[in-house]
């Protein structure tokens, strides 16, 4: 961090450094207290971030038309609490936790489900695409996977140079003998090279994509512009695609120090993937995402404008329902 301070010491960066300092202070709180404070801060965001709140409610209206407005509002409030945990508890843990010290202490409570599917895929001696959608605990998922294996998470570079440097540093760490080394989403050649070297990528291709080669595929029954890169990467490198999903759960009896714990579930490597039909492959992935999101919808990243809604569309969806 000191190197970044020297590199970005000009006055225009002071506001960001103030925010980083506040996150560092939060990281010194006991983990359980930090989670509680983060939930409260998430509710503050719900109250203050009007445009994001309205987007979340609009997205939930499209995804869950069968639910009542009160049910969707409850999911939205729980979602902002989950966002608070992501930023103020989990991001502070990955950025400033003991994983960067000589102790390499691991304070997170984690359970793995169907870990044998990941182990079976690794035994095939092929490149791996660890596939997961954008849940609010995406920062911590990378940290958890690093317990098991080396991984190269794909990240989208930020337009602000200091923010980009902070994100890159925050997602680069080592636990024991395993490293996590991010790769830019713009560096397709490096992705292909790593997969051909039989390494693992952490890939999150579920967000809106309007670029060249996109396909429009239903997501929760609504047309969604989507990326087909998962199929392309698997076809070019013969990599195996292992869907992986994390859920944050609360059990203060079993985990009195943290309160919250994480369950990471691995699916078997997708068979007959890619199929040769990129639209069909993408629909298959969407079905997996939907299945897992429905288990705990508040933890999916609904603040993202997945359906490319205009302000007028958002207003139409929420004006008479909330």
Q: Could you explain how this protein is built, in words?
A:
- The chain has one domain (15-318).
- The protein is built from twelve helices and eleven strands.
- It has helices at residues 2-7, 14-27, 31-48, 50-63, 69-96, 115-122, 138-145, 161-170, 188-196, 229-237, 278-293, 311-318; strands spanning 110-113, 128-131, 152-155, 173-175, 178-180, 183-184, 200-203, 215-219, 222-226, 240-250, 260-266.
Contiguous low-pLDDT stretches (5 residues minimum) are: none
Global outline: globular
**Strand elements, count:** 11
Q: Rounded to an integer, what's the Rg over CA atoms?
A: 20 Å
Helix content: 40-55%
Q: Approximately how much beta-strand content do the residues carry?
A: 15-25%
What is the count of structural domains?
A: 1
Through-space gap between termini:
44 Å
SS content category: alpha/beta
Main sheet characteristics: 7 strands, mixed
In DSSP terms (H or I, runs of 4 or more residues), the helix count works out at: 12
> Strand order of the main beta sheet, please?
1-11-10-2-7-3-6
Quick overview of this protein structure:
With 322 residues, the protein is an alpha/beta fold. Helix content is 46%, strand content 16%.
In terms of topology, how is this protein built?
Blueprint: H1 2-7, H2 14-27, H3 31-48, H4 50-63, H5 69-96, E1 110-113, H6 115-122, E2 128-131, H7 138-145, E3 152-155, H8 161-170, E4 173-175, E5 178-180, E6 183-184, H9 188-196, E7 200-203, E8 215-219, E9 222-226, H10 229-237, E10 240-250, E11 260-266, H11 278-293, H12 311-318
Parallel strand pairs: 1-11, 2-7, 2-10, 3-6, 3-7
Antiparallel strand pairs: 4-5, 8-9, 10-11
Helix pairs in contact: 2-5, 3-5, 4-5, 4-12, 5-7
